[in-house]
Write a structure and sequence with these properties.
This protein is mainly beta. It contains one helix and 39 strands. It starts with a helix and ends with a strand.
Length: 540
């Protein structure tokens, strides 16, 4: 009996031990979930359920002033590719504003590549794409006043190799900037970075100029975001081949060029980082304060599966970058690459995104047991403190064993980060959408600006009907209180009076100032002090 009892105990112990191991493994490899700040994903409607919808490498999303989100994408059926756009006015819940609509300017060319787009402060939409016939880079403009597309306009001159990847971005001075590749990387062709600009919102364009060096090496994927740029100091970065690395693979470095006159002239290319590893696919943002922010990914030559995402910022127009040598912002030991960007103008916060492949098997750089995962998800961080602080990474997708790809992002004047990406299921790809809660402006109802001895707050923030401005006057003087929109236009001077020292309160009817959800700027000027401004989100 004693033997039987001991045997039963041993068996029970082993069973419990096995269960504990299984539970620990399950916990260790459980799906990571989506950060609570991001919404559940919704499928973006296609013209037909039997076609595939593809995203793009360059930005292909526009957020208009009223929050309408427009997505430009490609539908594929067999060998037929058609460019469409679709819109949502309810934060991605439904996509019928408009329903899938053929992007007609692209029908005037043959063999088009993905369409890249950007919107400007006036509500116009600027689109650019490459085509095989006629061979070139082409442009069209959606006019916000006439609600019509312009004629198709050729931007490129002579194409030496191929009309490849292209990217378009606008700045806060009404300029439109187009970058593209002449050639194709990864082939016997060389590729170079070309550029053209418009000073009048896309109505007239400069001749193309070569930005990279015509040195017989590949230069690829110039991705920039000038949507917050208010000055003339700009930069562009790309991956540039330093020649053949191990096993004949291109050894990529990050190069850049700068302009101090808004794109009229560009500096000679300079290498930002060059190691024996492969530094690839930089994304560069120019903020409204002139600071520049850059991410890229690194493929280590020792093990390309250990890809990582790097970050740096510049305070001198891109001449030098901090920290020296850049720093890793992706999680150690997790295959992370293919970075993308978006800029929050209201809060002056750059956002960066990348593919996190921890759900892949270890043989391909992930952490899941072999056969238990083959997917990839998207990770996000934002930058604050004028470039010095990077937030903790957030998962915005959890696709299980599916792989998320061709991701793009945009942030409107409401401060809401928006994302779309595609997932392949049953041999068809579908685009999905998610968005994040808007970040706080950094100013709460208890925040006080004390730099000049002045207490200054606005509450509530966000506001819907009324907002109360509280401020402290340390000595008698003239006080001015003005409200501006994101274009810098003065909407109202709420106060202009001599006030005694002490605490003061003033109420603003935000509901009467704007008709749509947007951000206003409350500016306080007290005699003998500099201007102090608080951005306030007004919800309608």
């Amino acid at each position: 009996m004693r033997y039987s009892s001991n045997l039963g105990f041993a068996v029970s112990f082993v069973v419990i031990l096995v269960l504990l191991v299984l539970v620990s493994v399950a916990i260790g490899y459980a799906q990571h979930g989506v950060d609570a700040n991001w919404s559940a994903q919704t499928a973006i409607v296609k013209s037909s359920s039997s076609v595939s919808a593809d995203g793009a490498v360059a930005n292909n999303m526009v957020v208009q002033k009223d929050g309408t989100t427009l997505l430009f994408y490609t539908e594929t059926s067999g060998s037929k590719r058609t460019s469409y756009y679709v819109g949502s006015r309810d934060n991605g819940k439904t996509w019928n504003a408009p329903a899938p609509t053929i992007f007609t300017p692209a029908t005037h060319t043959i063999g088009f590549a993905s369409v890249a787009v950007d919107g400007d402060a006036e509500g116009n939409i600027h689109a650019v794409w490459g085509a095989k016939s006629p061979l070139g880079i082409f442009y069209a403009r959606w006019d916000a006043k006439t609600q019509r597309w312009s004629d198709t306009v050729r931007l490129s001159g002579l194409i030496k190799q191929k009309a490849g990847f292209c990217n378009i971005t606008t700045d806060r001075k009404g300029r439109v900037h187009a970058f593209w590749m002449d050639g194709e990387n990864g082939t016997p062709q060389t590729s170079e970075i070309m550029y053209a600009r418009s000073e009048n919102g896309g109505l007239a364009w400069s001749s193309q100029v070569l930005i990279s060096k015509d040195d017989g090496k590949h230069s690829a994927f110039p991705i920039v975001d000038y949507s917050g740029a208010t000055g003339d100091n700009l930069a562009v970065a790309w991956r540039d081949s330093a020649g053949r690395g191990s096993n004949g693979v291109q050894n990529w470095d990050v190069q850049s060029a700068n302009t101090t006159d808004g794109g009229k002239t560009w500096s000679e290319p300079r290498t930002l980082i060059s190691t024996s590893d492969y530094e690839s696919d930089p994304n560069l943002i120019v903020g409204k304060d002139g600071r520049m922010y850059l991410t890229f990914h690194v493929y280590p030559t020792s093990n390309i599966q250990n890809a990582r995402v790097m970050y740096g910022y510049s305070t001198d127009g891109g001449k030098t970058w901090l920290p020296e040598g850049f720093k890793q912002i992706s999680e150690m030991g997790i295959r992370s690459h293919l970075t993308k960007e978006a800029y929050d103008f209201v809060n002056n916060r750059p956002w960066f995104f990348w593919k996190d492949e921890r759900d892949l098997p270890p043989a391909t750089g992930g952490t899941m047991p072999s056969g238990d995962g083959r997917g990839a998800d998207l990770m996000a961080v934002y930058v604050s403190n004028r470039g010095e602080t990077v937030s903790r990474p957030e998962f915005l997708t959890d696709a299980g064993t599916d792989e998320v790809g061709l991701h793009n992002f945009k942030i409107g004047e409401d401060g809401i980060p928006r994302a779309h990406y595609f997932i392949k299921q049953n041999d068809l790809t579908t685009l999905y959408y998610t968005q994040r809660k808007a970040l706080s402006t950094g100013v709460t109802s208890t925040h006080l600006l004390q730099a000049n001895g002045i207490g200054f707050s606005v509450a509530p923030n966000p506001a819907s009907e009324f907002a109360t401005v509280n401020f402290t006057v340390t000595e008698p003087g003239r006080v001015s209180l003005k409200i501006f929109n994101v274009l810098g236009q003065e909407l109202i001077q709420a106060l202009d009076a001599d006030l005694p020292a002490g605490e003061h309160t003033y109420q603003i009817n935000t509901h009467s100032l704007v008709q749509t959800t947007q951000t206003l700027f409350v500016q306080l000027n007290i005699q003998h002090s500099k201007l102090n401004t608080i951005p306030v989100q007004v919800m309608r």
